[in-house]
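Appendix C reproduces, verbatim, an entry submitted by the partner laboratory led by Prof. M.T., so that reviewers can inspect both the input and the predicted structure.
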Amino acid sequence: MKMKPKILVSLVTAITLLAMAGVLHAQFDLGGWQKITAIPDAKTHLVPRTWTLDKYPDAPTLLPHSKVTVLDQEGPGVVTNFHVSNYAGDASQLILRVWYDRQNKPAIDMPLMDFLGDIQAAVKPYHTIYFSRVRASHNFRLPMPFRGHIRMEVENPTDRYMMGYMEVQWDEVKAIPEESGSPLDPDDIEVPVLPDPGA
């Protein structure tokens, strides 16, 4: 029996809507993505940086060839939001480094804007659950749990003062669940040496 195209489209649409309703119902029962990724009994903290014009006159700033410690915190805890405004100057040059548990080498060492999903500081505005690039700022909401310690640093390697604002929101928790992943110590990672194709 051959089904008419309109009936087939309606059937596929109905099945898709039922599946979506099931997912939404499951998320509602679990409390949505915020509850799934949150650790209960948390105390939230806000750490502002690099903006001295009003509320935080003593905040460290991104002077030329300088580094700013964004967060230096004992654990256990979870970074829940990293908010970064647009910066005057070539923000694509800013570097983010993150150390976990006092590692010798940073577990994250990359351009800040790329980390925020704003590749080369040239992405048009967009919004997802964990990343957003809005008109004048960025938000990174992917949870970053740390058991012992975390240090986040931003470097301005340019000759220009970078004016802007950033803040880290983090939760102080009693413990990080065992099933949470931990970044590898960069010293323990063996980088394979590829053979020279010309040899």
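Confidence is low (pLDDT under 50) at residues 23-28. Additional entries are available on request from the coordinating office.
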